[in-house]
Amino acid sequence: MSELNICAVQLNIKWEDYHENLTRVKHFIKKHASHANLIIFPEMFLTGFSMNTSIAIEQNHEYVQQIIQLSKFYNISICGSLMIKDNNAFFNRFLYIKANGDLYTYDKRHLFRMANEHLTYTAGRKRINFEEQSFKISPFICYDLRFPVWMRNENNNYDVCIVVANWPHVRIDAWLTLLKARAIENQAYVVGVNRVGIDNNQIAYSGGTTIFDFVGNIVTQAKDNTEECICATLKLNDLKQFRKSFPAYTDADTFNIVL
After folding, report:
1. Do 48 and 14 meet the contact criterion of CB atoms below 8 Å apart?
2. Assuming Cys at both sites, which of 10, 93, 196, 246 could form a disulfide with 84, CB separation 3.0 to 4.6 Å?
3. How does pLDDT run across 61-91, given as a tens digit for each residue?
4. What is the pLDDT at residue 157?
5. Torsion over CA of 29, 30, 35 and 36, rounded to 10 degrees?
């Protein structure tokens, strides 16, 4: 029976401080690598939700290479989003680094206009899936969560949905409600990974990092306002049995997204 041991880090991100944030990332990887297949960090986990593109890094930067080396050394897959410069454009880019060093990327589709993210970064145009321990996984970033059409699980295309975020405390009820809704409507595990702390814009983040199962039950949840890592074992057979006994996905509407 396929199982996925997953850890989600509710990081207190230090504003635009690559060195300090990478130090914290290394700490959590070292601490949890022995009992996880996959460890997930929040949106822009090395900088915070910054529009200062002067500090964006290219995908082959030393910091990314260090994370790749950590992945190989500890034999664990690592993911989260970073500020990436690519051919004179800037992306809020999700990086998924497999234990063998393979790298997959997803660029945030829905850019948060209330912070002028849409004026700073380039929107992504495609979804991706990758596989871990026989689980099909699809990543999304923060504001994407408000757009269920983009996240729709057509024909059980994914088994686990990952949402990494810098989602402020003032809207934390929406965060938790939407994560639960995505789990129920898509009949998939949903892993929401948020940050804690206060950024340089004086925006407070209380966390709410939560893993939901495929019927919307909380598997595990981080404590509010606490930097910590939560872990869970996801079971593919349980998911498949539920889909078989309650095949709502077979009545889903078909549609095309125009980009």
Report:
1. yes
2. 93
3. 999 999 999 999 999 999 999 999 999 999 9
4. 96
5. 20
- Of the candidates 7, 79, 142, 161, the residue annotated as catalytic is 142
pLDDT in tens, 7-31: 999 999 999 999 999 999 999 999 9
- Assess whether 43 carries a catalytic annotation: yes
Which of 14, 98, 108, 180 does the annotation list as catalytic? 108
- CA 201 from chain centre, in angstroms, equals 22
Classify residue 208 by its DSSP letter. Answer: -
Question: Is 108 among the catalytic positions?
Answer: yes
- Identify the CATH class of 3-249: alpha beta
2 SS3 class:
coil
Domain boundaries, the chain: 3-249
Active site residue 58: no
Q: How confident is the model at residue 1 (pLDDT cuts 50, 70, 90)?
A: low
